[in-house]
């Protein structure tokens, strides 16, 4: 199996193809606004904060890849990447939609990339293959946290293929 195919499988498992963990799109489909902002303790991040964090890094990579560094999200530090927009139901829906859109755009870029494109440096980043590999692992880690939070709330859908 080539690197591109392997990475496409990893990338899909984070969003919409079930593998060892449920994909984020499935996990979030029934999460309400109230569940999205819930925290078991103040020192933990909410589901929505975690999605904002994932979106920040994926959107930054997408903007850098597209050469749109003036449009990339900004943060003073990693902690501020968890910051929420105004807490409204509409903003929760838009955050989820934007995450799915950005994730799929990165997937399209990967799918269209030739072998040599995978290893070409991206401004401010390493190569596409290294950044997407790292982001897939980063997503999987935080998806696990989101799954844990949904289980704590008793809301994770019980339908798994295994």
TrEMBL record:
It holds the Pfam family DinB_2. Residues 24-146 form the DinB-like domain. InterPro entries: DinB-like, DinB/YfiT-like. This is DinB-like domain-containing protein. It comes from Paenibacillus rhizosphaerae.
């Amino acid at each position: 199996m080539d690197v591109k195919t392997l990475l496409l499988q990893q990338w899909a498992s984070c969003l919409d193809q079930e593998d060892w963990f449920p994909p984020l799109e499935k996990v979030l489909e029934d999460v309400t606004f109230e569940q999205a902002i819930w925290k078991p303790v103040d020192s933990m991040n909410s589901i929505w904060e975690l999605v904002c964090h994932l979106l920040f890094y994926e959107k930054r990579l997408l903007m850098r890849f597209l050469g749109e560094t003036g449009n990339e999200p900004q943060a003073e530090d990693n902690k501020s990447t968890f910051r929420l927009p105004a807490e409204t139901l509409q903003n929760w829906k838009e955050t989820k939609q934007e995450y799915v859109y950005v994730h799929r755009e990165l997937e399209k870029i990967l799918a269209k990339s030739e072998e040599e494109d995978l290893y070409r440096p991206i401004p401010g980043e390493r190569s596409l293959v290294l950044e997407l590999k790292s982001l897939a692992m980063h997503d999987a880690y935080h998806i696990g946290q989101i799954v844990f939070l949904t289980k704590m709330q008793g809301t994770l859908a019980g339908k798994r293929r295994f």
